[in-house]
C-alpha cells in the first residue's frame, strides 16, 4: 500500500476500512494508535459493526476494493498483494478518468496526531542481558537502544522510586530504511525481536528481526557494524520457499531465539517458525505448514497463527547458549492470532512437536483466568519463561498474565484498563504491552502504546511494584 500511495500520490485516495476481529481492535482510540505506530498517513474508518464489510461482500483480511472517481465499484482483490499486481488497473482507471475530465488531483487534507514525547516511540520487543543491561527495540523510531539501568537501591529504600536508565548505545540512524553500515548510518524499518550471541572471534553479535524490511540483521557490537544476514527486503509471497542468505524472501519476522548454532525466527507473515543455520545462512521452514490455524503435532504437520514472541525454557543448570534438553527443552511462543501460548518440545521422539498450553481457536479469545480450556487471552505478543513460570504480554487485554506450564492462568499485573499507572501489580495500568524479558530477577515490559519501559523486581522483599523506568538520552 505504501508503494501505491507513493506512485499515485496525486491520482488516488486511500481509505482504510478497519473491520476488527478482536474486541480491542474495534475501539477507535486503539485504531488511531495502531495507525500512528504503523506510519499510516491515510484516513481510516472504524467499521466496528461490519457494515462496509458486508456492503462490499468482503470475506477475508485484507481485501482491496477499487472505486473509480465517479464512485463506481471496479473490483476487489482479497489477500496479500504487491504494488505491481494492482498498478496496471490503477493506471488504466486514471487514464480513462483523466481523458473524460473526471479526475480530481487535489490532495485530501488530513491532520495527523502529534508525535509522542520522550525517548521511546511505540517500543516493540525488549532483550534483557542482566538486571542492569538491556536492549529495547524502539520500533517507532526505527532503531535499537542499549540501556544501562541503575536500580541504586532505590526500590528497597523508597518503594515509590523508579529505576533510572541511560542510553549507552544507539543502533540505527533513526531514519526508516534498509541500509547496512556503521551504527549511526544503518537503517531499520520497525525492528522487533533480538537475540544476543557471539561472533567467530568471540565478540558480541546482536541479531535483529527487522520486521518491515523482512530481513534478519546482525549487529557486530565491537566493530559497530550492521549487516543483513538473510532476506531480500521484499516480503515473501509463499510460505515454504527455503533459501540462503539475501536470496531468500522472508515474511514479517517478528522475534528470534538462539538454539544449537541456529537462529529460530517467528515468521508471523507465513504462520511458521523458521530455522536459520548461522554457519551456512540457510533459512528453512522448521515448524508449521504455513496454513493459518491452531493444531498440534509434529513440526511438519501442525499449524500456527501469526507467532510473534519466543522464549526458551532451559533445563536446570544448562549453560547459556547450551543445548536445551529434558524437562526444560521447550521453546514457548505466543501464537497471537489464535490468542494462544504454545511450545515446541525440543526432545520429541520423532523430532520437534507442538503442544498448546492455552488457546482454542482463531475466534476464541477474551479475558479469563483459570486452567486449560477455560483460559482466554486476547492477542498476546510475547511470552517469557522464568523459573517454571510463563509471563505473557496479554496485549489486547492490557495485562501481564502469569501462566504455569500445565495451563493454569492468573493475572499478574494490570487492571485491564488502558493507562499508565505504577504501583502494586493489581493496581498498575498498561496500554497494549508487546515485549517481555526477564533477567537478574527483573521482569522488563515494553509498554508499547504508553511509549514506556516498565519493570518489576521479582526478587524484591515485601510487595512487588510496577515501575516506569525513567530513560535519559
Summarize the biggest pleated sheet: 5 strands, mixed
Instruction: Tell me the span between the first and last alpha carbons.
Output: 34 Å
CATH fold field value of the largest domain: Neuraminidase
Report the CATH superfamily of the largest domain: TolB, C-terminal domain
Class computed from helices, strands and strand pairing = mainly beta
The stretches of 5 or more residues where confidence is low (pLDDT under 50) are 317-328
Estimate the strand proportion: 35-45%
The CATH architecture classification of the largest domain is 6 Propeller
Number of helices: 5
Q: Using only CA atoms, what is the Rg?
A: 22 Å
Shape descriptor reads globular
Name of the CATH first level of the largest domain: Mainly Beta
Number of domains: 2
| Amount of helix | under 10%
Averaging pLDDT over every residue, what do you get? 90
How are strands sequenced across the largest beta sheet?
5-6-7-8-33
The number of strands is 33
Q: What can you see in these coordinates?
A:
The protein has 473 residues and is mainly beta. It folds into 2 domains: 2-99, Glutaredoxin, CATH 3.40.30.10; 126-472, TolB, C-terminal domain (Neuraminidase, 6 Propeller), CATH 2.120.10. The chain has helices spanning 2-7, 28-37, 51-55, 83-99, 154-157; strands at 15-18, 43-46, 63-67, 73-78, 126-128, 133-138, 143-150, 164-171, 181-182, 191-198, 204-210, 215-220, 225-230, 243-244, 253-259, 262-267, 272-277, 282-287, 297-298, 307-313, 330-335, 340-345, 353-358, 370-371, 382-386, 389-394, 399-403, 408-413, 433-439, 442-447, 452-457, 466-468, 470-472. The longest helix is centred in the N-terminal third of the chain and has 17 residues, at 83-99.
